[in-house]
Specification:
single chain, disordered N terminus, mainly alpha, 0% strand, 300 residues, 70% helix
Length: 300
């Protein structure tokens, strides 16, 4: 006598999802460093969203000049001091958060959109397709990323958009390597073989079975790459190949501030602290996500 398998109801699926989310929250909450990273990341997004509403001198990010306040130290009127143009550094550092967020999200988004499909195709189909994709990826990986980015920006010309293009070009190979290895391990799993046996198309297998099982490492890598992308963009700004004045950008601000060290220390310290905290926050947050999304850490 055959026994029909009953599909779980919507309420049962909903309850299982809530249990999984509670387990994720419990696992994440066990790590103080992960909670610190989450707090920093949330603060970063809040500053990017509401920065123009909370800064005292929003006009200082658009090229305003007030030479009477030139290079003033931190005070009640100017919490982070002022720069060589008399602009309020607190306003410029906070408003630069939106630029950094936009840069990081764009670089990681483009790298993911390019690298993930190529990695899945290479791992699932194998053969000639895999050989071609991986050899092209190896060519990009053979050159240090920042060096290749500098060459691309030098060819395209300085500017924040060209910097994003250059960094996106050198960022996608990491996702190809990550996803290719995962797809290569999944293509011979029993559930994929069963899908082939019932006549499922390649597109359906990739969309329903391969890609969902690759999301965890992709999310972890993307969260940690956000900080690295922001740091790389700041590096381009520091050497004059990124954002151009008067646009507020942390790397460009430090580049100008280095000529005023050490007497006017606040000019470089506060943008540097902003970069440090942002990268630290995303790294700690990424570590926490890795702990809870690692299948080996799940306990039913």
């Amino acid at each position: 006598m055959s026994v029909a398998l009953r599909r779980p109801s919507f309420a049962e699926r909903h309850a299982a999802t809530l249990r999984q989310l509670r387990f994720y929250a419990w696992s994440f909450g066990r790590s103080p460093s992960s909670l610190l990273g989450l707090a920093i990341v949330l603060a970063f997004f809040a500053l990017a969203a509401f920065g123009p509403l909370i800064v005292p001198y929003p006009q200082d990010a658009t090229g305003a000049m007030n030479l009477g306040n030139r290079l003033k130290p931190p005070s009640a009127a100017h919490w982070f001091g002022t720069d060589e143009m008399g602009n309020d550094l607190y306003s410029r550092v906070v408003l630069a958060t939106r630029t950094s967020l936009w840069v990081g999200l764009t670089i990681v988004g483009i790298a993911t959109a390019v690298g993930v499909p190529l990695g899945i195709a290479a791992g699932y189909f194998g053969g000639t397709i895999r050989s071609v994709i991986m050899r092209v990826t190896d060519v990009f990986l053979s050159v240090p990323g920042i060096v290749l980015a500098l060459a691309i920006v030098a060819a395209l010309g300085p500017g924040i958009l060209n910097g994003i293009v250059a960094l996106s070009i050198v960022w996608w190979p990491g996702y190809v390597r990550l996803v290719e290895a995962k797809a290569l391990a999944l293509r011979n799993e029993p559930f994929v073989e069963a899908a082939r046996a019932v006549g499922a198309s390649h597109a359906r297998i990739l969309a329903v079975h391969i890609l969902p099982n690759c999301t965890s490492p992709i999310i972890v890598k993307a969260s940690m790459d956000m900080g690295l992308a922001i740091l790389a963009a700041a590096s381009l700004g520091f050497i004059g190949l990124g954002a151009k004045p008067p646009a507020p950008e942390w790397g460009a601000m430090i580049s100008v501030a280095r000529t005023y060290m050490p007497n006017w220390w606040w000019y470089a310290v506060f943008p540097g602290c902003a970069i440090y905290l942002t990268v630290l926050g995303f790294n700690l947050f990424g570590d926490g996500l890795r702990d809870i999304l690692d299948p080996k850490s799940s306990r039913g």
